[in-house]
Amino acid sequence: MKKQINSLSIEEARLLILKSQGLISTDFVKGKKGTLAAIEHLSYIQIDTLSVVARAHHHTLWSRLTDYKENYLNDLLEKDKTIFEYWSYAASYLPMSNYRFSLPRKKSYSEGKSHWFEQNKKMKKYVLDKIKTEGPLQSKDFEHKRTVDANWYEWKPAKRALEQLFMEGKLMVAKRQGFQKVYDLAERVLPLDIDTSIPTEKEYIQHLVKKSIESFGIVNENEVAYLRTGLKESTNKVLKQLLKEGSLIELTIDGIDKTTFISTETQLKSIEKIKTNNNIHLLSPFDNLVIQRKRLERIFNFDYQIECYVPEPKRKYGYFTLPVLYKNNLVARFDPKADRAMKIFYIKSMHFEKGFQPNEDFNILFAEKLNSFANFTGCNKIVIEKANSKWKKEIMNMV
After folding, report:
1. In the chain, how many domains are there?
2. Per-residue pLDDT, 150
3. Which of 61, 107, 197, 312 has its CA 20 to 30 A from that of 270?
4. What are the strands of the beta sheet with 91-95, ordered from one edge?
């Protein structure tokens, strides 16, 4: 079958991506079922320890599910066993239905690859035997005396062993207590009917392509293989085969040079039905839409960096800026801080993108979303510190 080559406008590309990401007229049902549906559709939700406002996994789901509750994730993990923790681009919640596609990475660790630290085989055996005998355990259940001037990265030997065994797939996270992992043997965590056959490299890449297109609508080969070492050549080969078979369609986006994207006929046909909704999203720095910075800049013309890892004097926008999505464009970013003890949500600084002027429609929607987000983080008062004085006054009159 001869491959088709299509062209999309940048506006069409944005609409298709936002619809595929569940940020325009989402079809997810409510409650815990909707949370599982969102994770299955997006293929992963990144976990992060930073809690300046809300932890990334909760924030990302809240952006797509207005009735989202934080306990849904642990219920899906511990009680329902319909999601599991492992590595995607980074530490993530993944659908249990995709479990077998985590096995190639686990195999590489089981065959000798080390997770950050040199392996201690004696400690690994000790940790595994202790969990076999005593049941699920946390890192704190293994004694360790830290040096007086210990740094945060000085993991005790048992913690290193736990993480190595976790990466190998011998241990899994059975649940979380607070934000601490509780580890157990994989065979005691996995549902009995789960498929544990290791996919071939071709099957694995076809899975990555399928999930990438489902969750983004359009992708290129670099985005499919993002942060997956050694897969670029194989990904390119599989994509060429799928294009030749007619399963995929090659396309270009107006205004973007020298980049070929791929999609499916079904996805491209859906563009006609997508309507820009009058909505605002305050996105996590680790949101699925945001995490690939080059794609964000290429498609949305939004140059973004999380600056918490940048020395303070060199920060341009703030410690933990959140991108603001308005209709089908990223129009602003602001630096927040949720003081849960005082129940105050701070906007430490607000920055609008060049060429964007907030109007009454934007301000009303922003104030509503800001109130909702502040409540989600446990705050009932909003304080705006650094912002355009007229805009600040208008928003403070609405919140």
Report:
1. 3
2. 45
3. 61
4. 45-46, 91-95, 83-87
> Domain with 155 in it: what CATH number?
1.10.10
Q: Are residues 328 and 392 in the same domain?
A: yes
262 domain-assigned: yes
Q: Dihedral of CA 291/292/296/297: which sign?
A: positive
Q: Residue 243 maps to which CATH number? A: 1.10.10.10
Share of the chain above pLDDT 90, in %: 79
Among 128, 161, 190, where does a domain finish?
190
User: Which residues constitute the domain of residue 330?
Assistant: 305-396
Alpha carbon dihedral 71, 77, 78, 80, in 10-degree steps, equals: 100
Nearest-angstrom CA–CA distance, 307 and 323: 13
State the residue for tokens 């020298």.
258
Residue where one domain finishes, among candidates 138, 155, 190: 190
Residue 157 or 152, more confident: 157
Same structural domain, 169 and 207: no
**What is the arithmetic mean of pLDDT over 340-355?**
97
- pLDDT, mean over the chain: 92
Asked if 189 and 180 touch (Cβ cutoff 8 Å), the reply is: no
Q: Which of 231-240, 363-372, 382-391 has the lowest mean pLDDT?
A: 231-240
State the CB neighbour count (10 A cutoff) for residue 385: 12
330, 351 Cβ separation under 8 angstroms: no
| 170 CB-near residues (< 8 Å, 6+ apart) | 110, 128, 185, 186
Does 253 share its domain with 333? no
Residue, of 231 and 83, whose pLDDT is higher = 83
The encoded tokens of residue 150 equal: 């210990």
* C-alpha to C-alpha distance for 43 and 212, rounded to whole angstroms: 8
CA dist 48 and 38 (Å) reads 18
pLDDT confidence band for 257 (50 / 70 / 90):
confident
- Select from 41, 111, 85, 37 the least CA-distant residue to 189: 85
226 with 154, same domain?
A: no
Residue 149 has a pLDDT of 53
Strands (DSSP E) contained in the chain are 5-8, 45-46, 83-87, 91-95, 171-177, 180-185, 249-253, 261-263, 280-282, 322-326, 329-339, 344-352, 381-386
